[in-house]
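Notebook B, p. 112. Complex prediction, attempt 2.
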Amino acid sequence: MAHETLNINVTPEWALEQAKLEPDVGVTSVGGLAQRIRGFEDVPNAEQEGAENLSTPSMSADPRRQSLGKFIELSRRRMRLSVEQLAEKVDVDLAELLAIEKAEDIVPEPRTLYQLAQFLRMRVEPLLELSGLVVAKSVSLTESAVRFAARSEPMDTLTKEEEEALNWFVKELTK
Amino acid sequence: MSVHTAYIIDAATGDPVQVELDDDLTVDVLLDVEDQWKVPREELRAKLRALGVARKDWPESLWWDWGMKSVRLAFGDPNDFRIMALRRQAVWEAAMVTRSKNHVALLAPDIGKPIVYVDFLEVAPWNWTIDKIQNRKFKASGPVLLRAALEQSYAKGWDGRVGLHALPQAASFYLGQGLQFVKNDPAKQDLPYYEISAAEALKRTGRR
């Protein structure tokens, strides 16, 4: 048995970065997000939706997707960042970030959600669930998403009500 | 066998902790791993039962037995499998078995090219977070081993391509590590199959 020599360089800094990215319930979650990943066959795509959607993405009717968009948008505005600035800070594609905020009928890249979660200092699981990438048995999150989507309107600066709605939703996502 | 210095993170303090990464262990070491992990697993099962947690919500690898895996590997092709593990002093914190024969990429543009296949990867039971029962002791042990699998792929000239079937509870972990969901595999009890592309491996290993 003669295996190749490996060149492995794991520094403390690299490990710290990995620890930040590691989901808290990724290994197991008891009574919480019992997850299964969606198969590609479950995800609507342009071919299934018709050629029209290729050029004009429609807004998702799913309240979770809408609340994901609202959540990202309000979090960004609270930090007084433009979409371009946020895309640059979290190193994600500008067009994809815009599509997420507008709740367009696209499937976000998992990496994008991880980058956003890391930037917002929160667990990634709720974002994966809201995006539809992960199917979770969390009925309460759906209810919270509906209430959140209904309570916020797009404006240049956060109103007191939006601020309260965002704070409440952050608590729902992190509890 | 070669030993590398690596680091995992103390989940309570956030401090890096030095460990040894053994990258070419013999099958008998897995018996030692099982010896160390068996009792903590049994204790976890007892706590889950006591709390009345439904079986479907138990950690999915709670039934793994590294002793049995070692027996199967002992009859396998030693040029196919490779055993790696993380050791903190005398304690095994995570273990992995990779295979390098008969596995090919399913992701474009490298469909059909060889990959390193992660047969098993598990962290020690005390490194699992389980709601209402325990917080993990150390973080980043899984990513360190996955990194080793990527490096094995590079050493073979396979551009970092790695594939694996994941237990569903580990889906978010592997997505976070840059692997892409490819399909649910009917040949493996419909488990989701994930792969990391050569392009993503470049990013993950800091080569680009």
